[in-house]
């Protein structure tokens, strides 16, 4: 009787231990964007949720990628203190003071990003460099630094007018209170499509900046970074993923 009980308990232990050993590990995935296409949409059809869903499926039960919005300051605290391990999506090494990519484990490029210069179609501004904005009212977002442009702002040659969001700047532009504004390409395409504004805005053929958007992984998640890099070629062939990129005018 006692031997049977011991055997039963041991068998149950083996089952539980085996289940735990096979359980997927949760990977915290952070985005500090609160507007499309990188914000988390309740419907789950945004770029962040879709990427997490695809990576979870491709991991074969090893990892569950859990997306979460966090303010940039909170993410900075986690990274600096090491209090949490996770991934930061849509990042660039320069934005996290890691030009040499040694502080964190960085993925390969996920998508290209660009900061577009936008004006009204009936008063177009073709951007060739900061000088092309001289004498104009330029819409910025408070707290953002614009390379080259801010130098001319300081010199009094560009009038920079800040709001708290890209959408507010677009409203000002369309009501003739700005001559030009800067906005990331993904956000621009979302706003234009939502408001049917394609006939009203002019996008300069030259962006202010073009850059790579990568995934930052804390050092303890280097193995997850390696897995992501291995999946990127197949990700770019995924129909759902490519459809979303095209929707927002983005390229892998």
Would you write up a description of this structure?
By secondary structure, this protein is of the alpha/beta class. The chain has two domains: 20-112 and 212-247, Periplasmic binding protein-like II (D-Maltodextrin-Binding Protein, domain 2, 3-Layer(aba) Sandwich), CATH 3.40.190.10; 113-210, 3-Layer(aba) Sandwich (D-Maltodextrin-Binding Protein, domain 2). The protein is 37% helix and 23% strand. It has helices spanning 2-22, 47-58, 72-81, 149-154, 166-174, 185-195, 222-235, 239-247; strands spanning 25-31, 63-69, 87-91, 105-106, 111-120, 137-141, 159-163, 180-184, 201-203, 209-217. Strands 1, 2, 3, 4, 5, 6, 7, 8, 9 and 10 form a ten-stranded mixed beta sheet that branches. The longest helix is centred in the N-terminal third of the chain and has 21 residues, at 2-22. The radius of gyration is 23 Å and the shape is globular. The model is unreliable at 5-21 (pLDDT under 50). Residues 1-23 form the signal peptide. This is ABC-type amino acid transport/signal transduction systems, periplasmic component/domain. Keywords: Signal.
């Amino acid at each position: 009787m006692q031997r049977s009980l011991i055997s039963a308990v041991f068998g149950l232990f083996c089952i539980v231990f085996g289940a735990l050993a096979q359980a997927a590990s949760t990977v915290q995935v952070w985005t500090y964007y609160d507007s499309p296409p990188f914000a988390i949409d309740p419907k789950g059809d945004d770029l962040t949720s879709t990427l997490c869903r695809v990576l979870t499926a491709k991991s074969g039960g090893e990892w569950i990628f859990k997306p979460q919005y966090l303010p940039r300051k909170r993410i900075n605290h986690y990274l600096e203190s090491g209090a949490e391990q996770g991934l930061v999506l849509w990042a660039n090494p320069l934005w996290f003071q890691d030009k040499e990519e040694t502080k964190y484990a960085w993925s390969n490029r996920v998508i290209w990003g660009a900061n577009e210069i936008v004006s009204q179609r009936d008063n177009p501004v073709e951007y060739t460099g900061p000088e092309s904005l001289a004498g104009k009212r330029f819409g910025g977002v408070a707290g953002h630094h614009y390379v080259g442009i801010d130098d001319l702002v300081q010199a009094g040659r560009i009038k920079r007018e800040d709001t708290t969001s890209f959408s507010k700047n677009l409203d000002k532009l369309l009501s003739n209170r700005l001559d030009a504004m800067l906005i990331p390409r993904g956000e621009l395409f979302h706003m234009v499509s939502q408001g049917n504004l394609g006939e009203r805005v002019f996008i300069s053929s030259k962006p202010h900046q073009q850059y790579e958007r990568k995934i930052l992984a804390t050092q303890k998640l280097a193995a997850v970074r390696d897995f992501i890099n291995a999946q990127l070629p197949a990700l770019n062939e995924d129909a759902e993923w490519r459809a979303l990129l095209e929707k927002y005018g983005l390229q892998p």
